[in-house]
Amino acid sequence: MAYKPQYGPGTSIVAENRRKYMDPAHKLEKIRDVTDEDLVLIMGHRAPGSAYPTAHPPLAEQQEPACPVRKMVTPTDGAKAGDRVRYIQFADSMFNAPSQPYERTYLEAYRFRGIDPGTLSGRQIIECRERDLEKYAKDLVNTELFDPARCGIRGATVHGHSLRLAEDGMMFDMLQRCILDKKAGVVKYVKNQIGEPLDKEVKVGKPMDEKWLKAHTTIFHSLVGVPFRDDKEYVEYTQRIHSLRTKYGFMPTE
Amino acid sequence: MAKIERSQKLFLKALKEKFAEDPQSEKTVFAREGLKQSARKKEFIEAGKKMEMSRGISMYDPVRCHLGGIPLGQRQLMTYEVSGTGVFVEGDDLHFVNNAAMQQMWDDIRRTIIVNMDLAHQTLQKRLGKEVTPETINEYLHVLNHAMPGAAVVQEHMVETHPGLVDDCYCKVFTGDDEMADDLEPQFVLNIDKLFPAKQAAAMKAAVGKSLWQAVHIPTIVSRTCDGGTTSRWSAMQLGMSFIGAYRMCAGEAAVADLAFAAKHAGVIQMADILPARRARGPNEPGGIKFGNFADMIQTDRKYPNDPARCSLEIVGAGTMLFDQIWLGSYMSGGVGFTQYATAAYTDNILDEYTYYGMDYIKDKYKVNWQNPSEKDRVKPTQEIVNDIATEVTLNAMEQYEQFPTLMEDHFGGSQRAGVIAAASGLSVGIATGNSNAGLNGWYLSMLLHKEGWSRLGFFGYDLQDQCGSTNSLSVRPDEGAVGELRGPNYPNYAMNVGHQGEYAAIVGSAHLGRGDAWSLSPLIKICFSDPSLKFDFAEPRREFAKGAIREFMPAGERSLIIPAR
User: Fold this and answer.
1) Would residue B461 show up in a list of annotated catalytic residues for this protein?
2) Residue A124: helix, strand or coil by DSSP?
3) Residue B251 or B125, more confident
4) A–B: how many Cβ contacts below 8 A?
5) What ipTM was assigned to the predicted interfaces of this complex?
6) What is the mean pLDDT of chain A?
7) Of A181, B347, B526, B561, which sits most exposed with the smallest number of CB within 10 A?
8) Chain B from 425 to 484: CB within 8 A of any A CB
9) Over 90: is that where the pLDDT of A248 sits?
10) Do B440 and B493 form a contact (C-beta atoms < 8 A)?
11) Cα–Cα distance between B434 and B166 in angstroms, integer?
């Protein structure tokens, strides 16, 4: 019988969103259109239009050892070209940001190839070959996975995920990389992800409203969203995993 | 699980003191006031300038050096209430470098060694035919308390240490033999009956029996200049010389080797085991302290025998300070970041609130009379019950963070929250069941629930330790596990993660505190640290840390006698 991923338990909208975002068969809803050039500016790894710096010659030009694994795995475009490995890192507010750290890692693992995600409490990083990264970053920023006010693109000094929101609804950022243009109602990046000032502002769109956030978030929250306690199936499933691991190690059978 | 009502919120006083806004407000105005918010940071700037002038090398310059000109304090720089004390302190004052009480707590552990006297007495009596009586023991102890700080007893011409520098050094003895204890001079005796509640005292005396043990504390200044491995050596040398002097032995006779062997090896209880070569530490260094022994060092239950929760919280405070701030934060890692993690567990009464919620829950649902520690009414540690208690305590703690956004902002890092939530869960299970491994198992379920609920946990390290913890919390195979009492900071999966080790020690202790046991692992260590003559009061670690933070704690090992006056 072929393996069919279940993407996790739960009866709540939070659980449903988690499954949806992880499932590659679900087409992520496109909400904004940040251009390739603007994303390159925010990430700050290279100047827009410049050639991709390389870590090694293109695979076609270098002597590859006879290796069955290399024959099985088709290289990504970035690996083929010998691109550097670079990153994009997100901080996500606990006030109903659509993506949250582990959810990001899981969905990226299902949807993208050749990635190295890292998951912490206040940030989540994905590293991969540069041209692959730029492709993946578009999905991560332009779709329902992102909210301009509650998700931040931050390379360093990331903290904000657990803090109260600013009076304008923005997640705290010590470096104020992005600010809300109150007149236009649009969030714009004035610094790149490690806090270097940008030559031009990059607009990433309007913050989504509370109703949308609550409907799209992947975090349980008893004050502003769905209490974890209310998703009994999810809690019981976690208890079950724990019990089976306790009794049978990592090969649980009942 | 089913939520219970608990109107008291122990953390509210701190939140109201720390934040201008309603603790339940979701929004704030980030004033970005920088360093000027903090009296201590301003003091640092002033002191930095002064030091720069005197040494001619640049120093503390946060306005220029922090993030290319953006200083700390873009949000509110908070003070912290040391839990259970009502004392508010600056976060900086809880770094061990800035806190003399924290240093002294570790000094008092590192400079301590327990040495059996029976072996030496047998050598004197059987091998040398000498008489050993209470009078000779008193005389020996008098000689020893002269010699241990660094004075000569046999030699004719010898350098010695200044008593004013080593006044914290001494030796007392203890035994389970009342008759023997009565015959010894009270100044030299740890009186178990006076120091412990009757039930615990009786248990300890029965465990110690007629053996006589020396609790030796070498000078703080010595163990600071050398290391923990020095403690047994310094102690053994002075013990040997004191025996020679007090019992009129020949200084070079072969029997001295027996005394030395007993004092250095056969009769020695180190506070911590030697670590593997890759850790490059001798005995009596923090990484080798067994959690059960650490739980025994903390003495709160002598003072508050009916509050196992409070006693466990004191172990958490002391443990996170030693294992996170000093061991992992400095011995193993370096830098200053670990303090911010560790203090979360003993400030603002947050862990206290979550733990007392657990106490209310186990009383309400399982009828555990937690304020009357006893092995009789503990709950059977079935998986179902462990899961139930840990789940409820975890969900409640998560909800508190959610309902009070300032609380979440207080514990702004996931590792802080994970450690605190799991600790409350582990302590509640430990106290309810009287089983330390059940407590640890509750900790690991808490971690899984936390991760699933918020889709985040702590830093990378939590991916290993806390997500495979379920599988090893009931394993006792070598290299894979041990009962909690015998685990320690160097247990394979525990060796790298801040925010765990002090809590584990407390979970171990909580099981025994819940049962009303006299000790967790070692009655000898429990008795040794009950000594009121120690510089650090091991019954009230958090209060001592608060005293250190407000600069009211007087440590040992000061050098002012031998340096120019300032």
Assistant:
1) yes
2) strand
3) B125
4) 145
5) 0.97
6) 96
7) B561
8) 441, 444-445, 448-449, 451-460, 463, 468, 470-471, 473-475
9) no
10) no
11) 41
Closest CA relative to residue B407, chosen from B176, B81, B170: B81
**For B337-372, what is each residue's pLDDT tens digit?**
889 999 999 999 999 999 999 999 999 999 999 999
Query: What is the least distance, in Å, from the CA of A158 to any CA of chain B?
Result: 11
CB B508 within 8 A of CB B439: yes
CA distance A63 to chain B (A): 36
Q: Are strands A165-166 and B27-28 parallel, antiparallel or unpaired?
A: parallel
Which chain A residues have a beta carbon less than 8 Å from that of B444?
242, 246
Tokens matching residue B269: 């209880």
CB A91 within 8 A of CB A58: no
Q: What is the mean pLDDT of chain B?
A: 95
Judged by a CB distance cut-off of 8 A, whether residue B415 touches chain A is yes
Nearest to A162 among B74, B409, B459 (CB): B409
Instruction: For residue A34, count CB atoms less than 10 angstroms from its CB and return exposed for 0-12, middle for 13-18, buried for 19 or more.
Output: buried
Instruction: Nearest by CB to B448, from A95, A221, A241: name it.
Output: A241
**B27·A164 Cβ contact <8 A:** yes
What confidence category does residue B548 fall into, taking pLDDT thresholds of 50, 70 and 90? very high
> How close, in Å, is residue B325 to chain A by CA atoms?
20
How high is the pLDDT of residue B337?
84
Element (H, E) at B308: helix B308-319
Q: What is the pLDDT of residues B431-473, one digit of tens each?
A: 999 999 999 999 999 999 999 999 999 987 787 889 888 988 8
The CATH class that applies to domain A13-247 reads alpha beta
Q: A168 to chain B: nearest residue by CA? A: B27
Provide mean pLDDT across the span A127-154: 98
